[in-house]
Amino acid sequence: MASKCLVKLLIANYMRFCRKVAVGLIVLTSLAYAQASSEPSASTIVSPKKDGTDASANIEPVKPSITPESTEDAIAVDPSSLLPDLPPVPRANATLIGGTVERLDRVRDRVVVHVFGGGQMMVFFDPRTVVYRAGKEESVSELQQGERIYLDTILDGDKVFARTIRLTAPRATGESQGVILKYRANRNELLLRDSISPAPVEIKMTSATRIKQGERILPISTLVPGTLVAIRFAPDGNGHSTASEVSILALPGTEYTFAGEVVHLDLSTGLVVLKSSTDNQTYEVYLSPSIIPNENLHPGSIVTVVTNFDGSRYLARNLTISSQ
Fold first, then answer.
1. Is-contact 223 229, C-beta < 8 A?
2. Residue 310 sits in which domain range?
3. Model pTM?
4. Is residue 313 scored above 90 in pLDDT?
């Protein structure tokens, strides 16, 4: 009985000891955790406090500074300066060519010219080519298909190159000039070979259309094939053109005399282009084989030419160069 009481007493003392040890461990653990929490982490950045406020609440991320390049160090390159300079235009004997623009290729910088007197010629151009219209310098972009032009050309290698291109003054809208191919009385229609059109042009005639030569009013029967005329017309709204006036410039087989300054000369085809001192108009005259030009015939010469109109062109049978 006494031994049982002793055992119970020992067990009770042991239980009290275990509880005290457990409580002590809990207290020590709490103190260690509180101490660890009060120390800042090594990775934490705390700004200094000012006026007792917590500056850590106002921390902003630092933005990297980018220093702009100095304008003196920046180099602006003009792309055109990277292109090689064009060589100067070769010095060679020039040939003057007159005609109309049949095809224009702006990509390859070339033009196909329907040469006055027949035939075609391909001529190249580039930024070295100078373009004039009525004496004023123009851009190469002014070239248009069907336009009448005069070219000062040279042979550059195996290519014909245009040093200068002269464009005629723009014609008024609703005017045309050409040679009559046929008059269709049953259709009251005039078939015209226009100077800038590769295909014949059809012009409607009416009872109100005036036929004149100078100040004289003439009958429509005067319009025979081969007659050189200037026509004023207007569109009729149905895709046709109706002539209001037809002026006879030259009748086939008729003699005409021109006097003025030579502005272009192409001895290979016998073409002389002169500006009349009478009406300031430009005329194309072809030299007959009987006329042998000399060194006094050149652009700028003042000449008098007696011609016959053969139904397609003025053919010179006599040419006189004025003394200067």
1. yes
2. 255-321
3. 0.44
4. no
Residue 88 included in any domain: no
46 within domain boundaries: no
Domain count of the fold of the chain: 3
Q: What is the pLDDT of residues 203-254, one digit of tens each?
A: 888 888 999 988 889 998 888 888 988 888 876 655 567 888 999 988 888 8
Tokens of 40: 């800042």
Q: Which run of H or E residues covers position 8? A: helix 2-38
Terminal Cα distance for the chain, rounded: 169
Q: Residue 67 falls within a domain, yes or no?
A: no
User: What's the token pair of residue 234?
Assistant: 């207007």
Q: Is the pLDDT of residue 149 over 60?
A: yes
In sequence order, the 6+-apart residues with CB closer than 8 A to the CB of 286 are: 117, 269, 270, 271, 272, 313, 314, 315, 316
Residue 80 has pLDDT above 70, yes or no: no
* Distance between CA atoms of residues 177 and 229, nearest Å: 6
Q: Which CATH number is 181's domain given? A: 2.40.50.320
